[in-house]
Design goal:
- It is a single chain.
- The chain has 201 residues and is α/β, with parallel strands linked by helices.
- The chain has helices at residues 16-24, 39-52, 57-65, 73-83, 94-103, 132-142, 157-162, 173-178, 188-200; strands at 2-6, 85-93, 108-116, 122-126, 146-151, 165-169, 184-185.
- It folds into 2 domains: 2-13 and 70-113 and 126-200, HAD superfamily/HAD-like (Rossmann fold, 3-Layer(aba) Sandwich), CATH 3.40.50; 17-65, no CATH class.
- Helices cover 44% and strands 20% of the residues.
- A 7-stranded mixed beta sheet has the order 4-3-2-1-5-6-7, sandwiched between helices.
- Helix 7 links the parallel strand 5 and strand 6 (165-169).
- Helix 3 packs parallel to helix 5.
- The two termini are 12 Å apart.
């Protein structure tokens, strides 16, 4: 049995924090896992900015409600699910992802969750599991499932290397050049071709 594990933001949907950064007029919130390998450091930075600017979960959810999957992503996931099983492994949060999952026809999603107070202020976050993407791929492999993994950021590298095969998708140059042994594709057509090669092997 084969399974495809994909990152979410930057692969199937726009980067949520970048979209919120633009809506809120706070350029510092554009920083993502493409820029910062240390996820805890990145989240502490984000939560501090939200608190200083008195921004809460409903403010972010209003922006997310107006977002759509990346052009071609809906068709890509439909074509992929005709070929094999798909699971999304993401460092996003349940509270962010729900409306976007509906637009992608509800693929299975493993992600994290937020801690909020009664007023919707975000006080912290709970990781589903440390190194959750890599650990999920390792667990699936222990069930004798062949995994193809793909993503675009620093926090996707471990799951790609853990998988039987994988690639980067539209990754920034800094990641491509530092990890030249991992193929990188820039269109959904080439993405499907990489997966088809894996499924046919």
């Amino acid at each position: 049995m084969c399974l495809v594990c994909l990152d979410l933001e930057g692969v199937l949907v726009p980067e949520i924090w970048i979209a919120f950064s633009e809506a809120a007029g706070i350029p510092e919130l554009r920083r993502t896992t493409r820029d910062e390998p240390d996820y805890d450091k990145l989240m502490r930075f984000r939560l501090d900015l939200l608190a200083r600017n008195k921004l809460k979960l409903p403010d972010i959810q209003r922006v997310i409600s107006g977002m759509d999957p990346l052009p071609g992503a809906v068709e890509f996931t439909a074509a992929l699910r005709e070929r094999t099983q798909l699971i999304i492994l993401s460092d996003t949060f349940e509270e962010f992802a729900r409306p976007l999952m509906k637009k992608l026809s509800y693929p299975t999603l493993f992600c994290n969750s937020l801690e909020t107070d009664r007023d919707g202020a975000i006080s912290g976050y709970r990781l589903r599991q440390r190194n959750g993407k890599q650990q999920a791929v390792r667990a699936f492999a222990s069930l004798n499932i062949e995994i193809f993994a793909a993503g675009d950021s620093f926090n996707d590298l471990a799951m790609i290397r853990e998988a039987a095969a994988g690639c980067l998708f539209r990754a920034p140059e800094a990641i491509r050049s530092a990890h030249k042994d991992i193929p990188c594709v820039d269109s959904y057509e080439l993405f499907l071709a990489e997966i088809d090669r894996f499924l046919g092997s």
